[in-house]
Amino acid sequence: MIRILIADDEELIRGALVALLGLEPDLQVVADVADGEAAVAAAVEHRPDVVLLDLEMPRLDGVDAATQILRRVTTRAVLVTRHARPGTLKRALGAGISGFVPKSTPASELAQIIRAVAGGDRYIDPSLAAAALTEAESPLTARERDVLRLTREGLSTKLVAKSLNLAHGTVRNHTSSAMMKLHADSRISAAALAWERGWI
User: What is the C-alpha to C-alpha distance for residues 194 and 200, in angstroms, rounded to an integer?
Assistant: First the structure.
């Protein structure tokens, strides 16, 4: 029996996944949660064979949640996303994700992917893999990515500085540098552009 944890903030989709995967004789959903932090806690508690994570969740996105889970639990992680950006795929692979699939994947195919991943294989949707090969590398530094990620979460420059233990002026410098690299006219649009390209 393959034990699965499902994390998705959209209740309808999460419920459908629980129901459909529960119909498979060799799959058992041991927990389902609505955000990334809850996914980490549930993974530590239940020790599933596979964690199925929505990419876009509150509190921790799927990549960050998977990173924390894989540090603490011996499991395999599959990301499911509606907006599959090649830059995000690269980030996910760097985090040790074993599967990356669009939300349009039929339930029967998803069940097969979960079985393959649980058995030690890696599955990347072919269209995502092809796009990733042609995607430009991120021009952002690690600190610029941190600043833009927190900006996208709605934090003010002062709160970003506090969160990263940086001087307010240093955060402004990182923000200005990122804006120039992305040809953005505001820190909000820079964060949005970086997210759309999968760089944060």
Answer: 6
Cα angle, residue 150 at apex, residues 179 and 72 outer, rounded to 5° = 130
Structural domain of residue 182, as residue ranges? 142-196
Q: Which residues of the chain have pLDDT under 70?
A: 83-86, 131-136
| Residue entry with tokens 């997210």 | 195
**Of 138, 99, 103, whose CA–CA distance to 120 is shortest?**
99
State which amino acid sits at residue 115: R
Residue 137 and residue 104 in contact, taking contact as beta carbons nearer than 8 Å:
no
Q: Would you say 100 and 91 are in contact if contact means Cβ atoms under 8 Å apart? A: no
Identity of the amino acid at 49: D
**CATH assignment at residue 146:** 1.10.10.10
Which structure tokens are listed for 57? 């969740």
Q: Global pTM?
A: 0.71
Same domain for 95 and 52: yes
Which of the 8 DSSP states describes residue 25?
A: T
